Amino acid sequence: NMSIEQIGGILRAENLNMPSGNVEMGEMNYPLRVQGEFESSEQIKNIVLGNFQGKTVFLKDVANVNDSIRKMTIDAKMNGKPGIEMMVQKKSGANTVKIAREIKKELGKLQKTLPSDVKIMTIFDTSDFITHSINNLSETLLFAFIFVVLVVLFFLGRWRATLIIILTIPISLIVAFIYLGVSGNTINIISLSALSIAIGMVVDDAIVVLENITKHIERGSTPREASIYATNEVWLAVIATTLTIVAVFFPMTMVSGLAGIMFKQLGWIVTITIVTSALAAITLTPMLSSKMLILQSKRKKTGRFSHERLVVPWLNKLDNFYVKTLHWALHHRRTVVFGAIGIFIGSLVLAGYFVKAEFLPQSDEGQITAYVELPAGTRVDESVKIARLVEDYINREIPEKTLVSTTAGAYDEASFAALFTKSGSNIINFTIALTTVSERERSVFEIADNLRTFIGTFPEITKYNVTTSQGGMMGGSNTVDVEIFGYDLEQTTALANQVAEKVKKLNGARDVTISREKAKPELRILLDQEKMSQNGLNTATV
């Protein structure tokens, strides 16, 4: 004659795993732990409930204990097939690209041990954006180096002079990499961008010094004499030019906050690279010039395909044009000054009216995420029906897709994914991976707009949001957030709805959502105290 409450109390008392003091044995003091937590249904069956007529009564004698399948709370599909999602998060300070590379390596080994119909697919990988960006910037850096070589060769017309100039680039870059290593920084998007900016400026000082040395040699000086006297003539101008550039970039090293994270490294790298190039220009360039430069013979200068015949005439025309322009400017000083001021003011006006501004530009990363919310309290199976309809549209209208991941329902509250992804029985999440930009005609923004329009046609959907970034550089975050504070929940909610309705009418506004959740419907039960008393029950028992 045991009640359900009594049996439940016994189960709770037995399902424990807790420390239970200490015991001294010889020279050792051991902590004790009682291991009673259930690990299988067999343990639960053999729980002793008590004794009846001298016999031990087990739980299996009065109840059926079975392993059963938990009721479905979430439906996950990968390309239309049932799947399981796993999220891997790196530790703070760990290298994202390195961790992702090692994970893919281990997943490849694991795939070989699985049945042929079980596939491991990557839904999203934050290291892809970093890798692609670094590869693109590396290519830009290489092309910049090549173009600098060609431009210097075009204007100087000497291989030896070009080689002396170009040596400034690797020396400056090596010093920049030494700074990265000593400061604990890495080769990333910011550092490569800084090097791309600096690579065109590092040769400026060396060109000024070398050009002056070349003039002295052509006037009859020996390379050694020309290197000494020519450098003495321009070294002060070289230092002044360098300090001008440093004055622009060095203040970036003192910026704090988010801007500091983005621009501090850029400021240091450009400053260090430019200072190094200036030192190389007034030391290394004269030394190499004294050893490598020679006075070219007139015969070599005037050959059919020589620099003197192919390039110098065009440079002379450019010089003549500049002389005429300078002569006119010196004789029309007021016109030049007021014209420059007018152009400056006009530029500000045009920039203010016609040039749009944003914090960071969005990039086409080939990733779309969609968040769909149905009325609070909607069952999982109803959410799954809507998810299948949206999936059908994606499969039919987005041929550029390579993977479609859909989850409808609520994650386990104790799961890792629940910390990063909003979920519930009425919530659907989509992740769509697209082919590369070069393999498709439509941009990710066009595809997202079409998907957004389709999702908006469902009357059952109360809230939705479509973004086109996996978080590369915060491109997927909201453009504008409006915060409303107050003590009255009803008034603040009403005000939020008014603001949302007005914002939706603005040209260009989309995905307008309110963060406050709507109340979930519930059923309230009123108990009959008299009938409960007649049956030996109370409110807690019911």
Task: Give a verbal description of the structure.
- With 542 residues, the protein is α+β, with helices and mostly antiparallel strands.
- Among the domains are: 58 residues, Multidrug efflux transporter AcrB TolC docking domain, DN and DC subdomains, CATH 3.30.2090.10; 171 residues, Up-down Bundle (Multidrug efflux transporter AcrB transmembrane fold); 50 residues, no CATH class.
- It is built from 20 helices and 10 strands.
- The strands form 3 sheets. The protein has a 6-stranded antiparallel β-sheet with strand order 6-5-8-9-7-10, with helices on one face.
- Helix 5 runs parallel beside helix 8 and helix 7 packs antiparallel against helix 11.
- The longest helix has 36 residues.
- The radius of gyration is 37 Å and the shape is elongated.
- About 1% of the residues have low confidence.
Uncertain ranges: 471-476
Assembly of the depicted chains: single chain
Rounded mean pLDDT is 83
The percent range for strand residues is 5-15%
Give a topology summary.
Elements: H1 4-14, E1 17-25, E2 28-35, H2 41-45, E3 48-52, E4 55-58, H3 59-62, E5 74-78, E6 81-82, H4 96-113, H5 126-156, H6 159-166, H7 168-183, H8 189-199, H9 204-218, H10 223-249, H11 257-292, H12 298-301, H13 307-310, H14 312-331, H15 333-354, E7 367-373, H16 380-397, E8 401-409, H17 417-420, E9 424-434, H18 444-455, E10 463-467, H19 489-504, H20 529-534
Antiparallel strand pairs: 1-2, 3-4, 5-6, 5-8, 7-9, 7-10, 8-9
Helix pairs in contact: 5-6, 5-8, 6-11, 7-11, 8-11, 9-10, 9-11, 10-11
